[in-house]
Amino acid sequence: MIRLGLTGSIGMGKSTTAAMFTEAGIPVHDSDAAVHELYRGDAAPLIETAFPGTVMDGIVDRKQLGERVLGDAEALGRLEAIVHPLVAAHEAAFVERARADGAGLVVLDIPLLFEVGAQDRIDKVLVVTAPADVQRERVLARPGMTEDRFAAILARQVPDREKRAKADFIIDTSLGMDCARAKVRDLITVLQPPPRNLAEAAG
């Protein structure tokens, strides 16, 4: 089974691309969705201990937590030390379920793939990209986004050019949905091995 790591800087179209793999029937593990789940479960008491007052009724208040850690490298490091191992465990369980189900390819949507050193958990890397002006326009159109917040997020991400240099595959999402969807289909054809019975028959 091939584990394809999907990543890209903020505003590059990663979530949209992940959805295209899902539409094509490929199992996708969404790290952001896993964090949401953990913030309602295992991570909540640990985060409340580290950042008192950020958990309400057993659920992490993401806005309160964000205000506590954004721009504070030490606080962010403490949060990541709590969350990243839990997300990795969630992801590992997903991979094992997909393997047991006979999947030939899974996509692991990891926003900070290079930043957290997740390369050892994957076989190939797909980076989604777009020109800087397109990225900026997309991000600043998000509710609550500011220039300062955008700059702070970019500061903790590996630059796009470095991501592209480390990628096995690249999709430029600025070229349109149809182009991106075609690239996804081509990639699935390249990476997903044929069904076992067909492979055995061919042999």
TrEMBL record:
It is found in: Cytoplasm. ATP binds at G11, M12, G13, K14, S15, T16. It catalyses: 3'-dephospho-CoA + ATP = ADP + CoA + H(+). PROSITE patterns: DPCK. Keywords: ATP-binding, Coenzyme A biosynthesis, Cytoplasm, Kinase, Nucleotide-binding, Transferase. GO terms for biological process: coenzyme A biosynthetic process. One of its GO terms (molecular function) is dephospho-CoA kinase activity. SUPFAM superfamilies: P-loop containing nucleoside triphosphate hydrolases (SSF52540). The keyword ATP-binding applies. It comes from the Bacteria. It is an enzyme of class 2 (transferase). NCBIfam families: dephospho-CoA kinase. Catalyzes the phosphorylation of the 3'-hydroxyl group of dephosphocoenzyme A to form coenzyme A. Belongs to the CoaE family. This is Dephospho-CoA kinase. The gene is coaE.
